[in-house]
Amino acid sequence: MRIALIHAGTVSIQPIENAFRRLWPEAQLMNILDDSLFSDRGEGALPAFMTDRLVTLGRYAVQSGAQGILFTCSAFGPCIEACANDLAPIPVLKPNEAMIDEACAAGGRIGLLASFAGTLNTMPGEFPVGTDVRPVLVEGAFEALLAGDFAEHDRRVLATASAMEDCKVFALAQFSLSRVAPLLEAELGKPIFSTPISAVRELRRRLASQHKLPNRS
Question: What is the reported pTM?
Answer without folding.
Answer: 0.79
